[in-house]
């Protein structure tokens, strides 16, 4: 059993991952393990390296050194396309949705299905097929949309999150990275997002979640990894830790307390 806990399949791992921006060492030999059907909360103060790590895993940045392994096999991920091909989906805080498109259009953007016969196959969209799969995705997540043809700009914050999460289901992603998934959401919408993440986990998806909200963390996380100044300083179990324990690790007050004694 590794420090992240559990014996489930390790879908995604990093080993000695490092990244520097000029004089700033954003990541310093960071190891994490993301397992099938579990939620790993990635915690730390601003500048701890959380976003840098997620951007490397999503292909938006390239690591200076270290390895990324998918199913135990080292992979080169230097572009978002390579991350997608490896089964990794990122749900950014701004969700990266197109407000002027419908729910279905957002789910299949760039992967539209077509029908007909050659050489005209790509001239006709298979709307019924896309709508059926979209409906199945939302049903599997227990999420409701006013209409699959609703324009995304007309949806609530929680409904927009549901669209971003359903996209990972439709595209059959095996690992989903969340950046502050409940930021700016109300209590009810936050609870809905928690349920969506739990449904995704129940499908065997491995999840990494960045959050500063301890309520979010303890509501959905199975494991916690704390970063400070680019280094991993702790793997923690939500079942045997308190929010105060986590905050102490994040801020370094645990070290200060030890030094006083």
**If you average the pLDDT, what whole number results?**
88
Structural class: alpha/beta
Percent of residues in helices comes to: 25-40%
Number of helices: 9
Order of helices and strands: EEEHEEHEHEEHHEHEHEEHH
- Rg for CA atoms: 19 Å
What is the global morphology? globular
Quick one: how many beta strands? 12
Return residue spans where pLDDT drops below 50 for at least 5 consecutive residues: 1-5, 256-261
Strand content: 25-35%
| Alpha carbon gap, first and last residue | 33 Å
The biggest sheet, with number of strands, parallel, antiparallel or mixed sense and barrel status, is: 6 strands, mixed
- Spatial order of strands in the largest sheet: 6-9-10-3-11-12
Note the topology.
Elements: E1 10-21, E2 24-35, E3 38-43, H1 50-58, E4 65-70, E5 73-75, H2 80-85, E6 88-91, H3 103-107, E7 114-115, E8 124-125, H4 127-141, H5 157-170, E9 175-179, H6 187-202, E10 206-210, H7 214-220, E11 223-228, E12 231-236, H8 243-251, H9 253-260
Helix pairs in contact: 4-5, 5-6
Explain this structure to me?
With 261 residues, the chain is an alpha/beta fold. The chain has helices at residues 50-58, 80-85, 103-107, 127-141, 157-170, 187-202, 214-220, 243-251, 253-260; strands spanning 10-21, 24-35, 38-43, 65-70, 73-75, 88-91, 114-115, 124-125, 175-179, 206-210, 223-228, 231-236. The chain is globular, with a radius of gyration of 19 Å. The relative contact order is 0.18.
